[in-house]
């Protein structure tokens, strides 16, 4: 079984589309939602003595306890030995101000070092600045995607979700990546919608993967393999966040995950 842990409900909506379009129908996946940000999770993990290089601490058990404490029994019937891979998806949220940006960066760096292997403690993927980055695009494919950044101050003054709504070619319509089946649709129409959505996801994979390569290595092109999430974070800090403007390169984790999970063949698949 593969366990996916998401920050919120929007992540689950995008993942359900990914699962339907790319994963085999009988793939054994399980999804749970943490319903809080990465920095809250850090505090909880510290309370459970995680993040100290203690790989004998089972991530499934820890999340089961954390969720149970808030009355969420989602993982109650999931056994540790049933889970072979763990993936976590959270937002950078650098507009968050209950702690200093430096403290939040330190916490996230520690999390990325710990959650670096899906077959051990789990692999953490980060959206910059939020999961809505998936929709921060003009009509696909968007040749200018590699240039898009957003400043922390702007995210504090105006929600990034609103910025996305105003910027996106697709506005609030998600059918370009989440095909909706309507009563009047025949089989051919349903298949066409799914094929169109897959192609759009492939555009997003190419765009986000090339941009992550640009952030890390200065080349806006598809690399043979993606840089680690820790390397991507470190380069975001040195080249964007820790600059006078304090900005971040807009990136989404789902397309990068798809490339790493399925390999380069996913881009050119028919």
How is this structure best described in words?
The protein has 270 residues and is of the alpha/beta class. It has one domain (2-268). Helices cover 45% and strands 11% of the residues. It is built from ten helices and seven strands. Strands 2-1-3-5-4 form a five-stranded mixed β-sheet. Strands 6-7 form a two-stranded antiparallel sheet. Strand 1, helix 1 (9-22) and strand 2 (29-33) form a beta-alpha-beta unit. Helix 4 packs antiparallel against helix 8 (229-241) and helix 7 crosses helix 9 (253-262). The mean pLDDT is 92.
Could you write a compact summary of the structure shown?
The protein has 270 residues and is of the alpha/beta class.
Q: In terms of per-residue confidence, which ranges show pLDDT below 50 for 5 or more consecutive residues? A: none
Given helix and strand content, the structural type is alpha/beta
- If helices are DSSP runs of H or I spanning 4 or more residues, what is the number of helices? 10
Tell me the major beta sheet. Answer: 5 strands, mixed
Strand order, biggest sheet? 2-1-3-5-4
Tally of structural domains: 1
Shape: globular
Rg is 18 Å
Q: Please bin the fraction of helical residues.
A: 40-55%
Please indicate the percent range of residues in DSSP E strands (runs of 2 or more). 5-15%
Order of helices and strands: EHEHHEHEEEHHHHEHH
Oligomeric category = single chain
Distance between the termini: 27 Å
**What's the count of strands?**
7
Overall residue-averaged pLDDT value: 92
């Amino acid at each position: 079984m593969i366990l996916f842990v998401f920050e919120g409900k929007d992540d689950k909506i995008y993942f359900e589309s990914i699962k339907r379009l790319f994963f085999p129908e009988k793939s054994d996946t399980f999804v749970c939602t943490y319903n809080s940000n990465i920095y809250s999770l850090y505090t909880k993990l510290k309370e459970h003595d995680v993040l100290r290089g203690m790989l004998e601490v089972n991530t499934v058990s820890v999340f089961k306890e954390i969720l149970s404490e808030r009355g969420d029994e989602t993982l109650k019937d999931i056994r540790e030995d049933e889970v072979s891979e763990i993936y976590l998806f959270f937002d950078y949220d650098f507009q968050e101000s209950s702690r200093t940006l430096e403290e939040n960066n330190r916490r996230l760096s520690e999390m990325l070092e710990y959650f670096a292997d899906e077959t051990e403690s789990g692999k953490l993927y980060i959206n910059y600045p939020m999961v809505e980055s998936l929709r921060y695009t003009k009509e696909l494919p968007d040749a200018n995607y590699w240039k898009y950044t957003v400043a922390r101050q702007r995210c504090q003054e105006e929600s990034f979700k609103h910025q996305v709504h105003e910027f996106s070619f697709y506005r609030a319509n998600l059918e370009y990546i989440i095909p909706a089946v309507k009563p009047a649709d025949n089989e051919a129409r349903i298949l066409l919608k799914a094929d169109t959505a897959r192609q759009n996801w492939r555009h997003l994979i190419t765009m986000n993967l090339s941009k992550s390569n640009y952030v890390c290595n200065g080349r806006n092109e598809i690399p043979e393999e993606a840089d680690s999430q820790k390397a991507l974070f470190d380069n975001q800090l040195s080249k964007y966040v820790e600059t006078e403007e304090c900005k971040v390169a807009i990136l989404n984790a789902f397309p990068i995950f798809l490339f790493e999970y399925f390999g380069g063949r996913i881009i050119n698949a028919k």
